[in-house]
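Input structure tokens:
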């Protein structure tokens, strides 16, 4: 029996795949060749637009993870946080595409950006807010159950609370690695002057590399082995 491939879903598109994924709309969100100042605008937009989608997913996972913690469902929260961390790893990996963007090409693209800046990314801003909510939810969990972080880290890694703390550290580390890669790529393609140059955004990016969303977790781990205190992070208004 021949399968009927006629679309049954509402919306635009010749197939149900196109209608469900909204590919007709999605693939028109990049500038048309005739409007481009350089052909590599496509590369630049695809990397950033896909990053926004991965951040959207990460924010959804972080938000629900915080809710699960409040409900006492740490195992479910841990799994969600693992998915969020993987999303940021994929955002980081795709930055490798910018290795194919020479400094001269980037400078040719600059007029197309207007006054736009990566610091204005809505996905990243939402990820910051969701990370703070997650931190607050975990702090409430520890306080309500009178759990001491140092004692927690001296205990079994199989403890669900220990595993949740480590999932949060993984998220923090993934974000830090993304910042490092972002910083290195920015220097490589010449979008920022070198660190130390007065007024260079690179100075701002470099400061963010050591920022921690969950400084108490890092400090507890360090204190356990008698090392120096971890920095408590930078001021919220400089968190990027």
């Amino acid at each position: 029996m021949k399968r009927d491939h006629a679309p049954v879903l509402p919306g635009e598109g010749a197939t149900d795949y196109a209608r469900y994924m909204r590919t007709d709309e999605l693939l028109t969100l990049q500038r048309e060749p005739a409007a481009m100042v350089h052909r590599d605008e496509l590369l630049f937009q695809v990397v950033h637009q896909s990053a926004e989608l991965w951040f959207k997913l990460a924010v959804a996972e972080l938000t629900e993870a915080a809710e699960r913690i409040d409900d006492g469902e740490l195992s479910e929260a841990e799994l969600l946080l693992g998915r969020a961390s993987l999303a940021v790893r994929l955002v980081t990996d795709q930055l490798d595409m910018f290795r194919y963007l020479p400094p001269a090409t980037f400078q040719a693209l600059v007029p197309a950006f207007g006054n736009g800046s990566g610091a204005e990314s809505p996905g990243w801003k939402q990820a910051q807010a969701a990370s703070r909510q997650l931190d607050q939810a975990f702090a409430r969990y520890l306080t309500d159950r009178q759990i001491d972080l140092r004692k927690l880290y001296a205990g079994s890694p199989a403890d669900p609370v220990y595993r949740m703390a480590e999932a949060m550290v993984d998220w923090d580390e993934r974000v830090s690695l993304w910042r490092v890669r972002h910083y290195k790529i920015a220097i490589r393609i010449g979008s920022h002057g070198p660190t130390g140059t007065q007024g260079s955004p690179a100075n701002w990016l470099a400061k963010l590399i050591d920022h921690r969303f969950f400084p108490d977790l890092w400090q507890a781990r360090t204190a356990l082995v008698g090392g120096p205190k971890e920095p408590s992070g930078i001021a919220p208004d400089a968190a990027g």
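Residues 41-109+116-238 form a domain with the Methane Monooxygenase Hydroxylase; Chain G, domain 1 fold (CATH 1.20.58.480). The chain has ten helices and no strands.
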